[in-house]
Each structure stands twice: as structure tokens, then as C-alpha cells.
Amino acid sequence: MSYDLWLIPAGECPTPTAALAYGEAAIATTGADTAPLATQLAAAINAADDALDGDGVLSVKPITAQGDCVFVPSPFSLIHEARDLVLPLAFAAGFMVCDPQNGIVLDPRTSVPAAVTVNGDSRYPVVSPDLVDHVVSRLAVDDFVIVETAPEFYVQTQRLGPESFALEYRAGSADEHYGTEVSSSAQVADAIHGWIAGDDASYRDLTWEKLDLNFP
Questions:
Q1: What pLDDT is attached to residue 29?
Q2: At the N or C end, where does the chain have fewer CB atoms within 10 A?
Q3: Prediction pTM value
């Protein structure tokens, strides 16, 4: 069983829901003419996979275009490596990357480079509003998310209880590391949205405390 990534032309889908529906329709369609851009993207992914050490990250080789989409299967154990390989190529070609297993859509028009870590066992090389909403809304007690947009620039949260979330950000150094506590996942998501957009309007009025991270 493979972990699948669906690459969908961004211009065809204004919303994440539309992108997932578009991918499902494309899978159900057989015999459609392949679009040149999708064919080029599939070839680029095959070439990048061939250049990797070892057997690469694809569970089926070579992959081919299906209509104007590309469907990329990888082993579950290599999904992080598959995302790292596929996302830059897909975004450069103007394609969304859909993760149908989790209902996540990464859109080149709204995503920014980042190191996103979820509970230490799942990571993404970009962050988007859709990804933030997905992971934050599903945090269980003690779960955490870290979004690092540059070295020493990150926002992170951990769910402490049913209505309690620790929220922190670091803006370049230990001297600019602040924390607070909020009561809802919506507040957390809004703060992370603002962080990745470079707009602090959604979180600047929270009661922040400078954290002393200089351990003896």
C-alpha cells in the first residue's frame, strides 16, 4: 500500500476542497489525453528520483501523467523524503500538492518555505493556511506543532488540556523568545497564520511573557 500525493494544476482549483474533488475525478477518468505540462512534471520527478542514492522514493517507476494531473505513490516509510522531492518541482510547475490521506492541500499560491514538525514524527518543507488549520484542529493533549520559517525564527504550540494551549514564538534569538497561553485552537491557528504572513495583528494583543531560556 502506497502513500499518495496528487499533483493538480493550481489554476484549475480555487480551494482545497475543489482540488481534492478534481483529483478524485481525474483518478476515475481513464484514457484522457495527457497534458504537456503534467508530462514534463512527471518526467522531472522520475529524473530527480533516479538521481537519489539507493532506490529512490517512488513505489512505482516511472510515474506518468494522467490527464493534466500527476499521481505520485511512495512507501509510507519514505513519505517525508517524497514530500521533499516532489514539492519544489510541483510548485515550480504551478501544481498544488494534495495529500488525500489527511485531506491536506499545499498550494504554491499560499504556501511559504518552512520546517514544519508535528509531534516529532511528521514533517513538511512548506507551510500553508490549510496545513495549519488541519494540524492545529487535530492536536490532542501533549501534541505539539513547530513552524520554523528561518533559523531561530519559529512559532510553536502544545496542547496542555481541553481548553489550554501553550503558544510561543522566537524572533531570532533567546532574547526574543516569548510565550503565552490561550484557550482555543482557533487562537493558535490565527496566530500561526499571522506569523507566516508576517502580520502580528492576530496575536500582538495576547499577554506575552519573555521566556528565560538561559539554563544554568
A1: 82
A2: C
A3: 0.86
